[in-house]
Amino acid sequence: MNKEKEGGVKMRKAIVCAGVVFVFTSWLVQAAQADELLELKLRMKMIQNQMETLQEKIEKFGAERSGRIETPVQIEAPTQIKVSTQIEAPKGKTGVDFGNEAKRYVQGISTYEAKSIFNSDKSTIFVDVRRRSEYVADGYIEGSLDLSLGRLIFDIRMRIPNKDVPIITYCKKGMRAAIAGSQLVQMGYTNVKYLEGGILGWKNAGYPVVMSAYMGKIKMPAGKTPEDFLREARGMVGEGISPIEASRRRDSDPNTMILDVATRREHGLLGKIEGSLIMDAGKVAFNIKKKVHDANVPIITTCTAGKRGLLTAKILKEMGYKNVTYIQGGLNAWKKAGLPTATYVSGEEQL
After folding, report:
1. Which domain, by its residues, includes 153?
2. 127 near 147, Cβ under 8 Å?
């Protein structure tokens, strides 16, 4: 009996244990399933978000391709420049200061004195240093040379090569003329004055001025340029020869003539090629046949840089001379090549 009770108790314990194990196992299975379900839900949510992002990109790409929207461009804002509200005026010289300084170099002349010189001395050159646009309002003194103050020191030696010629500069009121006069004195011109009161003082004194549309309003011609003339000449004459080749031809054929059309001033600076015929370029067409009678004589033309030599060679070709060329680069190239030159004697030009 006791054994039966003991067996029954063990049986019940076993059943209870089995039940506990079953319940615990079931809980573990449910817990595992819950974790898997949660993880699955999280993965599904992630996939859904990725799908939404991809859909947005697809829609945006399609809109850009169709031109409905533009991709925004990042523009960097310009750097802000700080402007000082305090202005410091320059404290150096004024225009009046420059004018007053200039008057220490050059002597002024009254309108009355200038008019007396204008009437009696035709060798005096009146130089107008204003801009041409100013001629419209006030006119200019008849026969004056127009050379603005800004160009004066660069161009005056070409326009007035004689340092001793009498010069009277003038402008509107006199200040610029004084500055121009002082520059000329410093450059070496020996007889310079400026007109006190300028063109306004001249007019107020009742003296005549020229009112010219030509001087006041310039309409440049639109025809041939110097380059066009040179291009035409080169087409007829060719490309010319080097100084070395010119020297060789002259030495090999004593009949070869070198015709030099440079100016006296240029010859004074550069000299001349020994034995060359010197002739004014403007007179070649009229006088060359007096010196060169044979159309077959070899002629090589030259000048300072070659351009006038080329144009002169074209003239000779048109006149019927058959063997004509020119020196590329002229006397400058001749000297640069180390070829000898002779001293120019003023007045030895032919005809």
Report:
1. 95-216
2. yes
